[in-house]
Amino acid sequence: MSQSVRAYKGITPTIDPSVYVDEASVLVGDIHLAKDASIWPLVAARGDVNIIRIGERSNVQDGTVLHVTRKSPSNPEGFPLIIGDDVTIGHKAMLHGCKIGNRVLIGMGAVIIDGVTVEDDVIVAAGSVVPPNKTLKSGYLYVGNPCKQARPLTEAELAFLPQSADNYVRLKNEYIEELTND
């Protein structure tokens, strides 16, 4: 096990063989990375007091922080972090105890807090802050602090969401190929 992937209380992250995890990232505890996901430099993900699940073809870009909220008597499930398929999470985003649907783009520096649900096919603009327990409805762009629904996504934006994820699948494959050639 590398220094970037660490057990916590005997639970080690589970990582599909097709996944790229940069050696300058840190993954701790109950984290599952599905097929073709990628974790880029300086990502910190702690599945220590609840679970983190990252779906197929999703990418978590440089400097992002992923964390969860523990279970408690007042919140028996706590707030796990669940990220769907084909999700692009921009540089330095912070996701804490939220649920992200499929084909979502989280802009650079966005902050998404406990109990938030982001439905499928959503863009959260760079720098946006999504307050606790908010639901972002499918098919819209959300902007601001606190974030607000700005407008429906265009056909081009909807088409870009899986394309963005695919771009990162190709990039992580290039990185893996280069590592195996060294």
Summarize this structure briefly.
Helices cover 15% and strands 37% of the residues. It is of the alpha/beta class.
What would you say this structure looks like, in words?
It holds the Pfam family Hexapep. This is Gamma carbonic anhydrase family protein. With 182 residues, the protein is an alpha/beta fold. The protein has one domain (5-181): Hexapeptide repeat proteins (UDP N-Acetylglucosamine Acyltransferase, domain 1, 3 Solenoid). The chain is built from one helix and 20 strands. It has one helix at 155-181; strands at residues 5-6, 14-15, 20-21, 26-33, 38-39, 44-54, 59-60, 65-67, 81-83, 88-89, 94-96, 99-100, 104-106, 111-112, 117-118, 122-124, 129-130, 135-136, 140-144, 147-152. Strands 1, 2, 4, 6, 8, 9, 11, 12, 14, 15, 17 and 18 form a twelve-stranded parallel sheet that branches. An eight-stranded mixed sheet has the order 3-5-7-10-13-16-19-20. Strand 19 (140-144) and strand 20 (147-152) form a beta hairpin. The chain starts with a strand and ends with a helix. The mean pLDDT is 97.
Count of separate DSSP helical elements: 1
Give the distance, in angstroms, between the N- and C-terminal Cα atoms: 19 Å
Q: Average pLDDT across residues?
A: 97
Structural class: alpha/beta
The CATH homologous superfamily:
Hexapeptide repeat proteins
CATH architecture: 3 Solenoid
| Dominant shape | globular
**What is the CA-atom radius of gyration, in angstroms?**
16 Å
Note the beta-strand portion: 35-45%
Q: How many structurally independent domains?
A: 1
The number of E-state strands comes to 20
Q: Helical proportion? A: 10-25%
Poorly predicted runs of 5 or more residues: none
Biggest sheet record: 12 strands, parallel
Assembly type of the shown chains? single chain
The third-level CATH topology is UDP N-Acetylglucosamine Acyltransferase, domain 1
Q: How do the helices and strands follow one another from N- to C-terminus?
A: EEEEEEEEEEEEEEEEEEEEH
What is the name of the CATH class? Mainly Beta
Pfam families: Hexapep
Organism: Shewanella maritima
InterPro entries: Hexapep (IPR001451), LbH_gamma_CA-like (IPR047324), Transf_Hexapept/Carb_Anhydrase (IPR050484), Trimer_LpxA-like_sf (IPR011004)
Protein name: Gamma carbonic anhydrase family protein
